Amino acid sequence: MTTLEFKIEIKTPKEKVWDVLWNEETYKQWTSVFCEGSYAVSDWKEGSKIHFLSPNGDGMNSIIYKKIDNEYIAFKHLSEIKNFKAMPVDDAIQEWAGAMETYQLTENNGQTVLEAKMDSVEKYVDYFKTTLPKGLDLVKKLSEEK
User: Fold this and answer.
1) Burial 82-117 (b: 16+ CB within 10 A, else e)
2) Could you tell me how far CA 55 lies from the centroid of its own chain?
3) DSSP 80
């Protein structure tokens, strides 16, 4: 597995960036680069399950591994979701089960640096290298215009 790292500077306080990342409405906007209509279902508490879903019910079954409001969140991906149901871990899923995805915000003089890290199996590395930066660009745009 490869860990991909991305960084973007945003001219707004970290609280605003955090809200854009995880507020239901803006989350749907910036994650549309991965799948139009994608959304998340969770109570957003550390240790809780979170389901990242497409409109057809496919997605990722994960947990919020660590969360510090306005600073850091880590998701641990456990298995796939098909037709709104978490799938058992098979050999294909075992290859990436436990993959982490993290978002860290640091602020200096009203400027926020958003760092995203994502574990990926080799076949999706190129996809995430092009798609995640597009999502982060949308986070920047939404954060700076609100």
Assistant:
1) eeeebeeeeeeeeebeebbbbbbbebeeeebebebb
2) 17
3) E
Residue 132 burial (CB count, 10 A) = 20
Q: Which of 102, 114, 130, 142 is nearest to 34 (CA)?
A: 130
Could you read off the pLDDT of 109-124 as tens digits, one per residue? 889 999 999 999 998 9
Residue for token pair 């959304």: 39
> Domain 2-145 adopts which CATH fold?
Alpha-D-Glucose-1,6-Bisphosphate; Chain A, domain 4 (3.30.530)
Q: Global pTM?
A: 0.93
Mean pLDDT of 33-53: 95
Element (H, E) at 46: none
DSSP letter for 35, please: S
Domain ranges of the chain: 2-145
Within 8 A by CB and 6+ apart from 63, the residues are 47, 48, 49, 50, 75, 76, 78
